[in-house]
Each structure stands twice: as C-alpha cells, then as structure tokens.
Structure to design on (163 residues):
C-alpha cells in the first residue's frame, strides 16, 4: 500500500559578530556575507529546518534528539553530512522524498543569486531532481529579529512516500 506523510520544520540562528569570523553556510553552500550564523554545528539554518521536516514526516522526532548540541561530536558539524544520515534513517524505513520546499526568512543575504547552487547541492542528497526541490526566501519587511538583521529563520515542508 502506498503511504504519504507530510512534515514541516522551522529553525532560527542568530548572527555571530563579524570578528568571530564564522562562515555563513546555507543549504550546504558557503555564502559570501559579512558575518556567519552562531551555532554548535555549522548553523546551516535552512538544512536544519529541512532535516526537522524530514524527521517530522517520518515520525522520528527532531534534530536535537538525533544530534544533541551537548555532544562534542557535532561541534562544527557539516549539516549536509547530518542530512545524509537523516536520509539513511528514512531509507531504512522505506521512505523516499517526493518534493521539498525550503524558505529562508531574513533581509540579507538575498537567496536569489545562490538559489540554483543550493538546489544543485541539496537535491542529490534528497534523491530528487532539482525541479522537486524549491528554494525561496522572504523578508519580514524589516520587522522583528530577522528584520533587524539579528539572525535568520528558515521553514521547510516535505512530502514523503513509501510503497
Ligand atoms: N533573503 C531574501 C529575501 C527575499 N528575497 C527575494 O525577494 C522577494 C521579495 O521579498 P518580500 O519579503 O518583499 O516578499 C522574495 O520573494 C524573494 O524572491 C531573497 O532572494 N532573499
Ligand atoms: C544540528 C545541531 C547539532 O548541535 O546544530 P546546532 O548548531 O546546535 O543548531 P540548532 O538548530 O540550535 O540545533 C540542532 C542541533 O542538533
């Protein structure tokens, strides 16, 4: 019998100070920017939202459960590697991804110039053709913490199929 499951994910990371010299990593891509996001891992807020959506659809909890931020093993972790592990967990249970839609929430950086590179980087990790992975962004019209440039948020929705 064919089964479908939908999942959603949401994550927030604050920007670190420029002098901390952190890279900005979004969808597994280095993005030129004057500051990076703070986090125990590489703080890839878009991949974190995507992983939470995948885990949610499969009924497998959330990334904090799978990759605790108290575990030194995940200090500076490459979120693309963590995503590959999540995909392995899903495959073991017979799930495949039908499509995914990831939204960055913030004023800067603009996603537009990096959208295709992000799709090319992440679609193969999901086992998807690029057209089945949508990458988008919105500002919050300068309102709130994202509007003040204090951090970035991301949302993701995925559909899984089994059978
Ligand atoms: N970080 C961002 C934010 C927005 N965009 C693009 O701009 C469009 C308009 O944004 P609004 O918040 O005014 O709706 C949006 O649809 C994106 O195409 C972006 O690339 N990066
Ligand atoms: C992947 C992890 C690993 O520490 O990354 P963090 O950088 O701590 O990011 P957060 O989204 O706060 O929590 C998820 C963690 O599991």
């Amino acid at each position: 019998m064919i089964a479908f499951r939908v999942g959603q994910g949401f994550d927030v990371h604050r920007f670190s100070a420029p002098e901390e010299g952190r890279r900005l990593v979004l969808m597994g891509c280095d993005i030129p920017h004057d500051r990076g996001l703070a986090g125990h891992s590489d703080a890839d807020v878009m991949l974190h939202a995507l992983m939470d959506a995948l885990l949610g659809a499969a009924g497998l909890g959330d990334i904090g459960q799978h990759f605790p931020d108290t575990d030194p093993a995940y200090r500076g972790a490459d979120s693309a590697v963590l995503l590959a592990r999540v995909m392995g967990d899903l495959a073991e249970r017979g799930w495949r991804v039908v499509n995914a839609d990831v939204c960055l929430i913030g004023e800067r950086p603009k996603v537009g110039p990096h959208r295709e590179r992000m799709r090319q980087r992440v679609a193969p990790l999901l086992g998807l053709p690029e057209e089945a992975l949508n990458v988008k962004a919105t500002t919050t019209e300068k309102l709130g913490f994202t509007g003040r440039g204090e951090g970035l948020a991301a949302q993701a929705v995925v559909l899984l199929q089994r059978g």
Observations:
- The two ends are 6 Å apart (CA to CA).
- The mean pLDDT is 98.
- Residues 33 and 109 are 7 Å apart (CA to CA).
